[in-house]
Amino acid sequence: MLLEKDKEKTTEYELAVQEALKVLGKKNLALILHGVSFPSPKGQNTGFGTYNGEGGKQIIDFASGIFNAIQLGPNGKTKTSDASPYTGTIFSQNPLFIDLKELTTDKWKNILSEATYKKIVDSNPQKDESRAAYQYACYAYETALSEAYKNFEKNASWSMKHKFSKFKKENSFWLDNDALYEALSIENKSDFWPQWEYELDRNLFKNADKKARDKRIKEITKKYTDVIEKYKLEQFIASSQSDETRKYAKEHNIKMIADRQVAFSDRDCWAYQSLFLEGWALGCPPDYFSQDGQAWGFPVVDPEKLFNKDGSLGPAGILLKKLYLKMFKENPGGVRIDHTVGLIDPWVYKKDALPKVEEGAGRLYSSPNHIFLSKFSIATMDDVNLEVKPDKEKWVKKLNDAQIEKYGLMLEKIVIAAANESGLDKNAIVAEDLGTLTYPVVKVMEKYELQGMKLVQFVVAEEEDHPYRCKNITPHSWAMVGTHDNEPIRKWADSVVNTKEVDPHVKNLMEDMFNHFENSEEIKHKLYTDGQALAFAKLVEIFASTAENIQIFFTDFFGINEVYNKPGTSGDENWSLRLPSDFKEIYAENLKNGNALNLPKALICAIQARGPEFAEAHKDSIERLSKLI
User: For residue 88, is it within any domain?
Assistant: First the structure.
């Protein structure tokens, strides 16, 4: 498993860790690893990571027996100018997740030549670095997949072509539009549809005359047949490989958890623009981190298009239901919803303004006094606290059961319903509820018993009852030290030790876990002065808590002290950090120097942190773990 010891010791390691996790009441232990961050085997670094192919299998093999899930990032197609997976397409997969190596094999009838593949690997400017070469990969994969498309018609078997035809037919409701966008981008010399020269093309699915639309689609389809078919083939290959990866993961008792971002890509905005609220965008209100708020620029689904007056799904509701059905069926491990607040109580602003109250911004369903948004408001004037601003958490002060149900309609009738129809339940939803938690969000989360997130790195340590503190973390939740947007826990710890900022953190950790330890004074001193000790304690905290589910970002597990993404910034450093091909050796080395997570040691501390009686009751488990340190 983790260190690839002989089978007997590996089994001993797995059994001891699994027993300890059960003792601590943990149902899920997930490794957070976005697709780009997967390693490439030596000699196969094309500039971008993928969970498909040999690198994906290596991680699954490595994780199997300890982790039971891998939390991926969004897998949508991204723009050449923006590597963020959180602005990718909602249906189309990113062709950069295609394992090019497999296309050079007989399995795909060698539709990609070894020579082209070797050239891509040899020319990769980051081939010896643990970083993706995003711009390079975009163009290199375009070259490779153009060759693969040309050879597919000539080389592919009848069976493979039949599967391709079936895939196109089954996915035509999204695939046709996404592929058409590719052709229109060439026709209009821009992949950003608002800049397209032809008005008909810009509004093809908004208010264009049906006869004119059908004529234009037929014309573009004929002119760009190869472009459209190539796009569809890329999606077929990506889907086929992803299916095989998830099958391999299932065989190794690993669940793959998908990630549904709150955003829509340019491609989606164009295809479904009639379903969005014109002139409005989704963002975040002003807070400690941003004085003017965060203007994300993402479109807002029109509430009047979500549901019909009789309560049935409207056109926007039907589209989103199809999306979640696809995600849950492809990912029986579940779906993480990025920014669950956006489905319950979203903050919206005018596209030509800042996301501030003074400039007309407000919560879509909680603005009874707003000149425009009031028509969508579920909360009434009697439900809000006029002594605070509408952008504050306590703006809405009370709601009745009927109102709470209305706030939760998107979750109940779209997300949960899709999970149920896919043979899953609400526990397959990982509800990212970090940041501003308004009263409607809290009540909806409670009503549907959704599993939110508790981020111990973001605890407000001075607040006795803060929900991210160890003793306050609830069982029905996902606990973690950080996500893809946090600096590694060791980096955070090094920045606060030996400063006044660490005082309340040490106080809480000692009270919640370590005061009863025989060497408590020694532990306390280390927490004040040693970043490694503080980082380890924060990792122990999530296991010592009563949370039934745990997620660990790959940098914290492997002891990599580099940042994956820094919110509010742009550049090649973001979204590019990868595990190196020798990640197993890196983990082994960082275990020795104390930077990687020593899981047996952390579990021993977590069991002991529950108190002397608990530790005594589970001393056999502690003894088994002690032999593995």
Answer: yes
* Residue 278 within a domain: no
The 10 Å CB-count burial string (b at 16+, else e) for 230-257 is bbbbbbbbbbbbbebbbebbeeeebbbb
pLDDT beyond 50 at 533: yes
Q: Is 289 in contact with 382 (CB distance < 8 Å)? A: no
H, E, C per residue of 261-279:
CCCCCHHHHHHCHHHEEEE
Copy the structure tokens of residue 407. Answer: 């706030």
Query: How many structural domains compose the chain?
Result: 1
- Look at residue 477 and give its three-state secondary structure: strand
Contact in structure between 426 and 326 (CB atoms under 8 Å): no
Residues 6 or more apart in contact with residue 582 via CB below 8 angstroms = none
Per the domain annotation, does 574 fall within a domain? no
Say how far apart CA 288 and CA 281 lie, in whole Å. Answer: 21
Residue 268 tokens read as 């989606």
Burial class (CB in 10 A: 0-12, 13-18, 19+), 627: exposed
If we measure between CA atoms, which residue out of 54, 44, 35, 234 comes closest to residue 124? 44
Query: Quick check: is 175 in a domain?
Result: yes
pTM: 0.96
Contacts of 526 (CB under 8 A, 6+ apart): 533, 534
Tell me the H-state helices in 466-553: 489-496, 503-509, 520-529, 531-544
pLDDT tens digits, 477-532? 999 999 999 999 999 999 999 999 999 999 999 999 999 999 999 999 999 999 99
CA angle centred on 188, ends 186 and 189, rounded to 5°: 60
For residue 44, the domain's CATH number is 3.20.20.80
With H, G, I as helix, E, B as strand and everything else as coil, classify residue 560. Answer: coil
For 101-125, the pLDDT digits (tens) are 999 999 999 999 999 999 999 999 9
Query: Which CA distances in Å does 547 have to 24, 332, 574?
Result: 9, 22, 30
Give the pLDDT confidence score for residue 11 in this predicted structure.
83
Domain ranges, residue 219: 25-260
Report the C-alpha gap between 544 and 537 in whole angstroms.
10
Among 17, 8, 20, 12, which Cα is nearest to 618's? Answer: 20
Q: How far apart are CA 143 and CA 46, in angstroms?
A: 12
In 171-219 the beta strands, taken as DSSP E runs, fall at: none
